[in-house]
Write a structure and sequence with these properties.
With about 600 residues, the protein is α/β, with parallel strands linked by helices. The protein is about 20% helix and about 20% strand. The protein contains twelve helices and 24 strands. β1 and β2 form a beta hairpin. α4 packs parallel to α5 and α4 crosses α11. It is globular, with a radius of gyration of 23 Å.
């Protein structure tokens, strides 16, 4: 029987708590339980068992402004329902010799999260007024400056980490990796909230005067679960982690505004180069004392007799400087109680690039590449600072690490924030360039370089807030092993608001399968994170990010087959735990 829409105007919100998730999954045909010792617990469902599907709206649905939060539910913008699972589609685009050999052994299991955008919504130096005052279907960067989901970024991350922990109890994970943009606007307190959620600290998700901290749900302090200490996690740097709103040089004016009391006064054209240096519009702040997070103290400067002010907070200071050095950002990861120390970064290196071996007894190497902009410009705009960027030093480092891995007979994964020449989206196969035109190394050059290393199996990225998988085939048909897969993880901030799991498997013919699955964070009915799911669906429609008629989950699950060289096939044949013997047994109910 088809389930009724969730949180539609006529149906009560019913988002399942973790302990009841599998029991009520009436649309999932493969319901199962997991036996852990003598205990039985319901299995956490991924999108392979159940999807979150927006409910289609008619074309004549009344248009509303992003600030009309009561209208989100009133007109059905937030309506969604559970739908059947999305299978992992087997793709052998890059392996013409593959003949359907089954999975034989598991090599590596891990998860990725990306673009969490922990936001200090009360900061005088963010820019919520742009999106709050935007028209219906504004698109562009308006939803980046404001969306009702900015009220609950810490709580959503906590829900995702709790879900990761539950998955880990089903099948142990070897590590996790966060693909950048953990902070929304390079502020210290945003970065600290992120690390503290990962570490399982008590979180006070407000700043300045801490308005509403004792009465408003999204402002109340809470205890984060923290990532299971058996799972090491690693960090990638993103453009928002370094730049103001991800698109601006954190110059003296912006750094002063972050810790000051006056609301930032900038130009009215959000997309103009160096708009932060102009004046004419106050960027506004969220009033944490209001249940719906009203944006106040924003608008044209002519509307104010005196500059609007807020309570200052020294913890809002930028972790980067106007020369975009990542040193302050990287240093903070050593102030963490989870492992490994520094989460991949080095105390002695000024570079955010590094490598690690997830398992000492497994020939798989992860290469973490910082492909964000590191050059300031007096004329730099959003595409400049927010675009991909590889300079000579990072190019030399990357090619050196790839060659080392190739010579050592290691399979390799490159993890970066900004994808390299990806396809448009799940359905648009057109290449959509992501690098700034000023980058010393272009995406075309990067692809040519990456295709020289047949042991490279995958590039992982975030940045675009979408789930997409791009095959990057070998330019030499005689050597298909030179191709690799590019897998993007969507944002935890906005719909589809998912993270990914990866299972690297050796097949019976010693090819490799990358089984990747999207996961919706488990949220409880009426919780702050549960409300954020509704807002995420609603905001995607109101801002025009998805069509009113769109009823798809925007998830993409796949089994990606990668062909190896004869030498690597012979080597990898000795590795892996047989699929039938490992993990926790899943027993059909």
């Amino acid at each position: 029987m088809k389930e009724p829409p969730i949180n539609s105007p006529s149906v009560r919100l019913f988002v399942l708590p973790l302990v009841a998730l599998a029991a009520a999954a009436t649309t999932a045909s493969a319901q199962s339980v997991v036996r852990v010792g003598s205990r039985t617990a319901p299995a956490v469902l991924t999108t392979a068992q159940r999807q979150i599907l927006p409910v289609g709206l008619p074309a004549d649905t009344p248009p509303i402004r992003p600030s009309d939060l009561p209208g989100y539910a009133k007109y059905g913008y937030t309506a969604w329902q559970f739908g059947p699972g999305l299978p992992n589609v087997k793709r052998a685009d890059l392996a013409p010799a593959y003949r359907g050999a089954p999975n034989a052994a598991r090599l590596l299991s891990f998860f990725s999260i990306s673009d969490i955008h922990i936001t200090d919504k009360e900061s005088p130096a963010e820019a919520p007024y742009f999106g709050w005052s935007a028209p219906f279907h504004a698109q562009g960067l308006y939803s980046s400056s404001y969306s009702p989901i900015m009220l609950s970024t810490t709580q959503v991350l906590d829900a995702a980490i709790r879900t990761v922990n539950a998955l880990n109890r089903q099948t142990p994970l070897d590590f996790g990796i966060s693909l950048g943009d953990v902070a929304n606007s390079s502020q210290y307190n945003e970065l600290r909230w992120y690390i503290d959620v990962m570490d399982g600290k008590r979180i006070e998700p407000s700043s300045g005067a801490h308005a509403g901290a004792g009465s408003i749900d999204y402002q109340k302090p809470f205890q984060a679960a923290g990532l299971d200490r058996s799972i090491p996690w690693y960090q990638v740097i993103g453009n928002h982690d370094q730049f103001w709103m991800g698109i601006g040089n954190p110059n003296a004016k912006l750094q002063s505004a972050m810790v000051g009391s006056e609301v930032l006064n900038i130009g009215p054209n959000m997309l103009a180069a160096n708009n932060a240096d102009a004046t004419g519009l106050y960027v506004g702040v969220v009033d944490g004392a209001t249940p719906l997070g009203d944006v106040i103290k924003g608008g044209p400067t002519a509307s104010f007799d005196t500059p609007p002010t807020v309570a200052p907070d020294a913890n809002r200071h930028s972790v980067t400087t106007d020369d975009s050095s990542p040193a302050g950002y990287m240093r903070e990861f050593f102030n963490s109680t989870s492992s490994p120390a520094g989460h991949g970064f080095s105390k002695t290196s000024a570079s955010a690039c590094y490598t690690f071996m997830p398992k000492s007894n497994l020939p798989i190497k992860v290469i973490v590449l910082d492909d964000t902009c590191k050059s300031t410009s007096p004329t730099g705009g959003p595409l400049y600072y927010g675009g991909g960027w590889i300079d000579q030093a990072r190019y030399n480092w990357l090619t050196s690490e790839l060659q080392k891995g190739q010579d050592a007979g290691q399979l390799m994964i490159v993890a970066c924030h900004i994808p390299i020449a990806p396809q448009g989206d799940l359905n648009d196969l057109t290449v959509r360039p992501q690098f700034a035109m000023q980058s010393p190394y272009s995406e075309a050059t990067m692809l040519t370089t990456l295709h020289r290393y047949p042991n490279l199996i995958m590039v992982m990225a975030g940045h675009r807030h979408i789930n997409a998988i791009t095959p990057q085939p070998s330019p030499d048909a005689a050597h298909p092993e030179n191709g690799f897969w590019e897998v993007e993880t969507s944002s935890l901030r906005e719909f589809p608001r998912q993270f990914r799991t990866f299972d690297i498997r050796r097949n019976a013919d010693n090819s490799i399968s990358i089984v990747t699955t999207d996961v919706d964070p488990v949220v409880e009915a009426g919780s702050v994170a549960g409300k954020s799911l509704d807002y995420a669906v609603g905001a995607a429609r109101v801002f025009g990010l998805i069509a009113l008629s769109d009823t798809t989950s925007h998830a993409y699950n796949a089994e990606l087959v990668k062909q190896l060289t004869p030498q690597m096939k012979a080597k990898i044949a000795r590795y892996g735990t047989p699929i039938a013997r490992q993990g926790v047994r899943v027993v059909p109910q």
